[in-house]
Amino acid sequence: MFRLTSWSICLALIFRSTVLFAAPDAGSVAARKAVIYSLSKALLCQRSDGISLAGNNKSDSTLKKAGASIVFGDDDIYNNFTYSFAEPLLIEENNIYNVQQNVGEGGAVLLAEAKGDMITLVKNLGAQPTNEDEWLGMENVLFVKPVKSSNSQVDDTESYDGEIVIGQSPEQKQSGRFIYGCIQKMEF
Questions:
Q1: What helix, strand, coil percent values describe the chain, rounded to 5?
Q2: Which of 8, 12, 98, 180 has a Cα at 20 to 30 A from 161?
Q3: How many CA atoms does the CB half-sphere of 139 hold within 13 Å?
Q4: 53: pLDDT strictly greater than 50
Q5: CA distance 144 to 57
Q6: Of residues 28 and 113, which shows the higher confidence score?
Q7: What's the pLDDT score for residue 150?
């Protein structure tokens, strides 16, 4: 016969809280760290290992382990993905909730929706205000920083021009969110 005592209630509460608040497994922690590292570079037009970019089995698996849900674009020709994190990633002192990745004829776009201090990010990056509201098809762009980065997978001698863009729609402004990321124009 089981007797309900204060000791058994205490054990039940401890066990229940352990089950409800169990620490994430080591694989998901490692995946989050890998995605944060890779994405922090890619969003600033720096070469990364590509683990934060959807579109292949290895990176898709790592993104999912890191807590991302990936929505694949319905276009067979272009690489279009949106991925969201239920628990945001902390990058550049901003919480990253969503990432949009588009690769098409005009270039590559990797933008994150972040919540944090947009002006501090602008100052830290040295981005400058722009008079153009649209940048390579992206609306509500407020600041731009041109960057020179390595694009060669073989060596570091080939370079391209990319731009870090930072912007905010009226809806994002109300919620304290903004976008930032890398736009790379493709030259043929």
A1: 30, 40, 35
A2: 98
A3: 4
A4: yes
A5: 33
A6: 113
A7: 53
Residue 99 is encoded by which pair of tokens? 């990432």
CA nearest to 166, candidates 123, 115, 127, 134: 127
Q: How confident is the model at residue 135 (pLDDT cuts 50, 70, 90)?
A: low
Q: Is 169 helix (H, G, I), strand (E, B) or coil?
A: coil
User: How far is 185 from 183, CA to CA, in rounded Å?
Assistant: 6
What pLDDT is recorded for position 6?
A: 42
pLDDT for 63: 87
* Backbone phi, psi, residue 182, to 5°: -115, 135
What values do phi and psi take at 167, rounded to 5?
A: -155, 180
What single letter denotes the amino acid at residue 118?
M
Query: Which carries the bigger pLDDT value, residue 154 or residue 61?
Result: 61
With residue 12 as reference, give the H or E element that holds it.
Answer: helix 6-20
Of residues 93, 113, 91, 118, the one with CA closest to residue 101: 113
pTM confidence score: 0.76
Residues with Cβ within 8 Å of 76's Cβ and at least 6 positions away in sequence, in order, are none
